[in-house]
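Supplementary Methods, section 5.1.

A reviewer requested that the exact input to the structure prediction be made available. We therefore reproduce it here, unchanged from the version used in the analyses.
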Amino acid sequence: MRAIVLGLCTAMVLVTRVADAQMPLPAAKPPDGATLFKQQCAVCHTTSLSEPARQGPPLVKVVGRPAGKTEGFKYSEALSKVDFAWDETRLDAWLSNPQAVIPGVTMVYRQAKPETRAAIITYLKELN
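The structure derived from this sequence is encoded token-by-token as follows.
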């Protein structure tokens, strides 16, 4: 019985030392914009002009494009009246709260996490 107890104590010491010696977990990867776009945006938007439009306009080449002016897409009255081009700052504000950027728009998506918005915007810039 004494040998079993000693064996168990030795095993516990070894397990504790092995646990202490484990390497730290790697840092989390930053969010991938393409994956985030597919998960959060692709339900309503495409990234191709050859695909039929969905609830929202295609977002290929959106950075630098005049807002509310994509040919062949019917925008809300509020969005069709604006006079600016999409840049990173406006896209970030838009993804955070579309109604604060343009009152009266119909887009309901809101993204609170700045790193998620940044990843999606980076992905959209890559499509230009």
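The radius of gyration is 25 Å. These observations are discussed further in the main text.
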